[in-house]
């Protein structure tokens, strides 16, 4: 340890997504290569001597206690824990989280040091991993509200790779075997099945960590919600969700010195007739076992919706991934103008 292949892989993965801003401290981490990166991990992050760095990934993350603050993080997976190396400005981004992060380092603000805070989730504390629709994100759940983190990879390949690496590392953990199942009688075996609700697909790893994947009902619920927004529940049978993808909506701020653009996280859903943007809660659902009450907001909240037939043109940027798309719609005041004219013209 570390092997040549691992060094090369970690160096290749150590790249900040170009569309997201990070602090100087995280830029320093992104500039490390090969041996320097492994030495940095052992010298500054690792908690025990004999743990090995197995995987590195840059991703936006959300914490259960601060569901409205999406922050860039360098996610490091070792044989002992998952480390989230965060921008220090995150601590001051939300005044409601003083209990969540200790502020011991606040006296260093004016020094020449660039601080990062590191959130640690030990693999022994890991209870479940919920994979989001179409592998666009995943949620890691520990034993309390402080230990729930969602990684918004917005990339099925990154999600898949991290889950594979996590399963491999969990296989190395020595955990006490589960107790033998108690023999159930006929009534308890079949009586509990009549809840009328299909559970999500669960894969229970040998380390007893649950990996939970969405089932078809989740897409069905989403289709029902979309149809409701279209005011066309009659069309539910013919409604197909063609695309579900996590995106950023670009809002230009023209008053500033440079015309900066603000990126707002959105969920884009494309059907055969409409294009929708939703504000989605990626961290609160499904409800953790210790949750006493439902979250304050719904999982999906409609931000914008347009008919495809009103789409005039799509402008594509020339840059490589991530691609910028501009959808230009005909701005007709009365959307059903043509339909009404036709009805009037031909009478009954």
UniProtKB/TrEMBL annotation:
Location of the PLEKHM2 PH domain: 114-178
Transmembrane regions: none
GO terms, biological process: Golgi organization; lysosome localization; regulation of protein localization
Gene Ontology CC, one term: endosome membrane
Gene Ontology MF term list: kinesin binding
Domain Nischarin C-terminal PH: 241-347
Signal peptide residue numbers: none
Subcellular location: Cytoplasm
Keywords (A to Z) from UniProt: Cytoplasm
Coiled coil: none
Pfam families cross-referenced by the UniProt entry: PH_NISCH_C, PH_PLEKHM2
Listed name of the protein: NISCH protein
């Amino acid at each position: 340890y570390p092997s040549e292949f691992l060094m090369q892989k970690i160096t290749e993965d150590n790249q900040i997504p170009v569309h997201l801003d990070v602090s100087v401290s995280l830029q320093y981490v992104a500039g490390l290569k090969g041996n320097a990166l492994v030495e940095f991990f052992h010298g500054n992050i690792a908690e025990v001597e004999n743990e090995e760095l197995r995987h590195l990934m840059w991703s936006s993350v959300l914490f259960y206690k601060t569901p409205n603050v999406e922050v860039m993080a360098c996610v490091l997976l070792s044989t002992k824990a998952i480390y989230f190396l965060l921008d220090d400005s995150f601590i001051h981004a939300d005044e409601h989280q003083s209990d969540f992060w200790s502020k011991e380092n606040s006296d260093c603000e004016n020094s020449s040091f660039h601080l990062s805070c590191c959130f640690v989730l030990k693999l022994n504390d890991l209870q479940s991993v919920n994979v989001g629709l179409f592998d666009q994100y995943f949620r890691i759940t520990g034993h309390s509200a402080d230990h729930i983190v969602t990684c918004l990879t917005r990339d099925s390949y990154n999600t898949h790779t991290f889950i594979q690496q996590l399963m491999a590392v969990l296989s190395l953990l020595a955990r006490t075997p589960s107790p033998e199942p108690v023999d159930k009688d006929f009534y308890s075996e079949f009586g509990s099945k009549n809840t009328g609700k299909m559970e999500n697909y669960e894969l229970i790893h040998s380390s007893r960590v649950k990996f939970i994947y969405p089932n078809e009902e989740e897409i069905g619920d989403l289709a029902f919600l979309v149809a409701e927004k279209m005011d066309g529940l009659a069309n539910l049978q013919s409604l197909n969700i063609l695309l579900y993808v996590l995106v950023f909506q670009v809002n230009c701020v023209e008053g500033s010195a440079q015309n900066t653009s603000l990126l707002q996280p959105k969920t884009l859903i494309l059907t055969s007739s409409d294009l929708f943007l939703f504000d989605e809660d990626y961290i609160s659902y499904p409800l953790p076992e210790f949750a006493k009450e439902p979250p304050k907001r719904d999982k999906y909240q409609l931000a914008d919706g347009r008919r495809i037939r009103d789409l005039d043109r799509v402008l594509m940027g020339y840059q490589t991934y991530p691609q910028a798309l501009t959808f230009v719609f005909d701005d007709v005041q009365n959307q059903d103008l043509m339909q009404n004219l036709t009805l009037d013209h031909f009478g009954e």
